[in-house]
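Anyone else keep sequences and structure tokens together like this?

Example one:
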Amino acid sequence: MFSKILIANRGEIACRVAATAKRLGVSTVAVYSDADREAKHVAVCDEAIYLGGSAPKDSYLKGDAIIGIALETGAQAIHPGYGFLSENADFAQACQDAGLVFIGPSANAIRAMGGKSESKRLMESAGVPLIPGYHGDNQDAQFLQQQADSIGYPVLIKASAGGGGKGMRIVEKSSDFIDLLDSCRREAITSFGNDQVLVEKYALKPRHIEIQVFGDTHGNYVHLFERDCSVQRRHQKVLEEAPAPGVDTAMRQAMGTAAIEAARAVDYVGAGTVEFIVEQREDSMNFYFMEMNTRLQVEHPVSEAITGVDLVEWQLLVAAGQPLPKIQDDLAINGHAIEARICAENPDNNFLPATGTLFTYQKPEHSTFNITDVRIDDGVREGDVISPFYDSMIAKLIVHAPTREQALARLDRALAQTRIVGLPNNVAFLRYILNTDSFSKANLDTALIEREQDKLFDQHPLGLSTLVVTAIAQQLASEATMQGLDPFSKPTGFRAYSDYTRSFSLVYDEQSYSARISNWHNASCTDSKKSGDNLSNFTLVIGQEIANTQDDSNINVAAQTKTVYEGQVSYDSSDAHNHTLWLEGARISAQSWVNNETVHVFTDSGRDEITLVDIMAHVGQDTAAVGSLKSPMPGQVVAFKVAVGDTVEKGEPLAVIEAMKIEHTITAPTDGVVAELLFAAGDLVADGDELLRIDAEG
């Protein structure tokens, strides 16, 4: 076994590798960029060496610098993690040439399987089933369009050197082919430095099922069964589970055998994943080779959970020249495991990646990088910043249980106990998926999110009254910590000779509300738990502001309100974050955190947010709405689709921004004429920077 390794990665996977290395007594060297000086992976490794600038090309993609650091620190091997240089054949070869062990397959195996076109030709010769498509070297756009026309739509354009869902476009009709091809190639160049593509038939109702394989230097191969990764957005995985629902023993054996033969064909060594597209018919499922990922996968923990195997340990053992610890007959499936990828993104805004600070980051009881019922693998801590330079994933939540139904319940409970405040995230969205009929009943395919969109987007699981009462409780509890002990300063509203009344201004779901609370003197509490000095009883009235109107003289009349809720409520706050509410005949336990006036409310039923407006803080401010001509996040201008003087229509594409490895299109908010372009292609922009200006027609 090695005595020291360098981990050529960052974040969660760097922490994951370091955890197993520490357990095995192997010292670790971390590398870090400017953005990662205080990162968790830097803290958990035994040594940490500065690598370069925040952009990947200035740090984590600098293979020569990484190899130099490994040699200087006395590391014997380099673990590439996933992403960055993990599937770079030249880097693997350079490690070998420098006398270092690359913890992964050989450069030849990476080249053979890394190019999708070449790998498909190789699999065809090995007898592995392939989906119809063109995988050749002719990259002329018109020729590729002709191939797509002959294959039949829909087709999938895919970057030949791609992975991780990058560089993929679904084309529904021939007239869209060229534009989507150009977009795919741009993303491929940015992500992989190679714009070669292949074109395949897009299978209807497809499932994405993959096989975890392992090979050693002694010619031994095993598979560790399958994972279903069908739930995807933007061709990137959202939920993964093992074993795959509906796969019987015969199909499992056939897929496992095909995966091993694929690995054997290139003398594969180490951990790899053979991915298949599974076409679902009424009476059968047919699988076709899609690609092989020549590295450890993000979703590897679900395979670890059902087999009891530490795959990173196996990677280190095999790289050190030892044989696989088990043969195929020693491996068996135990129970069911599901992984949820928790990401900094806004599902309700086309999964736009988000940046910001993890103001609040609370997790359920769990293990870390260790097989157990609830496991969380992450590379961040509360207070860390999610930057625009890297992937948007915050953490992976993995659960294991005897059955799929029990695993679903366990995952839902663990997600309900996960609290993230400070930036948009998909925790609530993941819970919505779990509770759809499609997922709960294992009616799986890669279009599940689109099919269930009515139950997944723009959901508000908490009632307005719950949000308002929690926001008020949060405000009064916060004030109580800054007030004295005399009864006149308590937020319960004690008055010697008059009622206590207080008003609040709130915004919820882009609608303005007013709330008024007043003492509830005649409260009759039949619930014995409603007693105590901290209990507050109020009459609550919530009014919804309606649009301004004009009288006959065309003079604006002040905004009117209509009452949308009136009732008696009680709450008990143990501190500013934990509240027990009694309203509408129910007892509700709620937690809340405030960030920039927005109160984030969490209950077992779900989460939502409401803004408690500080009126004085906004005096004199311009309240004009922010238009879509501003960059939605930090990134780089890829291209402008218009020029100064062009006439544009509402919804027409104006500019393309690349951020977090994904392209985002900025569209016109209204009809008009382009007056000014404020940046050029290639420029870096900050969150909220105005990109261009449009003058309204007329």
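And example two:
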Amino acid sequence: MGASVPLQSSNEMPKSLRPYSSGHSITPRGLSAGAIDGIRHGRFDRLFPETQTTAPDDAMLLKLAEFMVTSFEADGVGAPDPGRPIIEAEVSDENATIPAAYTYFGQFVDHDLTLDVTGFGQSQKDAKAVIDFRTPALDLDCVYGGGPADQPSLYRKASNGARHLLRLGDAIAGAGPGSTRNDLLRLPALPDDPAQIALIGDKRNDENKIVSQVQATMISLHNKIYEDDDFHPGIADPDVRFENTVRLVRWHYQWVVLFDYLSGHICMSTALSDFGSLETPHLPYYAAVMAKGRDYPFMPVEFSGAAYRLGHSMVRPSYSLSAANLTKGVDGAGVPNPRFPTFGKRGDDLRGFGEPITSIWSIDWGFFIDGVTPTAPPAGAVVPQPSYRIDTRVVNPLSHLPEFEGLPPERKQEANLAYRNLNRGVGLGLPTGEEVAAALKITPLSNDQVWSAGSNRYKDEDGPSEIKSRRAAITAQGFAGHFKDRTPLWYYILREAEYYGCTRELPEAYLAGIVAAGEDPEAVKQEDLNYGGQHMGPVGSRVVLETFLGLLSYDEKSFIHQPTWRPHAKLNTGGGDFTLGKLIDYALG
């Protein structure tokens, strides 16, 4: 394979694309069926033993879930926070080091990896019996489906006459560079059913109007690379060209996931170096499970059921999609709409599943991520919009998921995403946060640290504060006694991020906006440190990276098995780090 590539050396790599010299006749991984040759699905398994603690009371789980979606103000418990206009920073809530696009890119990645259809409330102690109906690989089967031979409805003819381009839907009027250009391909509405169902490889990538546009962007990326001869030197055969395109799209995507999304934003910046070289990463927990006779990669339940659910805390209650949306209501009548609610009234919010993307909903990606130039943002706009912090709070809209409207009162908790996560963790017998920390030989948070608020860099504030208010409320709820030494893993991962996660400098553009608004940047920096939650802590980082590196390592066709390959210069413009912003900018430019 050649010399090992240190995992932290991605900025020093040559950017030439290595031509393919073999394997052109092999069906690209995941196109004939699933990512595992001839197998449509994988299975879940455990990195660590099942919990040895007594399950917490369900009433306390519900109480904790409801507490997690409560807003806290300096003088006590407040009403649900709808979010402020885009010209106002929200320092206590926002994570300025992770732009909002990564929240929904993370959701897209999750849909690429896992689909557990176990019914809510069904206790599932045997993790190995839980089927993962997504291929456990970063292979974009949610985009490519079964391939053009198996699912021709997803494909259309290219300029060379081969059915190798992915279908998109209607063009979006007025969409400019850096904006979503097309809706997803949709079935027409019927007289008795107005839903316009998206024809895509995974229906979940139409569940909200942001992730649907991530899906459309990845489709656009495939189509653009396929039609560009610069990516296919010496390749004349259309089928080989298609295979080459799929590889390139997957490898650029995998690179972004590992180096930009995970190492650059979500995990501790030093965590990746603990795994050794890129070609042969040290994976003591994932490899130990594989060594027990497994033929194919697996999805750890600690990852899917807890650690990778960090994105739920990153969701904002509302989003600005573009400059045009700041002055137009959903009816186009000119009613100002500074941010669209994540969930609200159908037709006025960002929910999907049959809701077409029109010019009202088209995203200007410069409002969501660095590397894409926003079009005409208002003076003082905080763009790209930050995600919310990785902490023990989730926004109010996630406590009443719209797909569960109409549940009887005795089942209303099933619409609370926080409760669903906590309940599923108990059902799967997930180890506690303390048990996972011990297995990883990481000093766990103390009980006092878990059931507190703020980071380990907290500096006491004069007078009332939100953190003080939350600390007092946690004490009053009695969580520290009931959950002592048995913290639900999902909650522990979030609390650990809140406690440890603040080591990155705030972006200069964010601080410039703070200064323009007349605020003291040093005070803002300290407030940011007080709240924490910029990135995951040591336990969360280890579980997440062990999983992703395990999947890439046991996928013989992933980019890490091609040690000389680097992102193409056409995508990685300007050199330096290759990022999600650059990928989006190329795909939609």
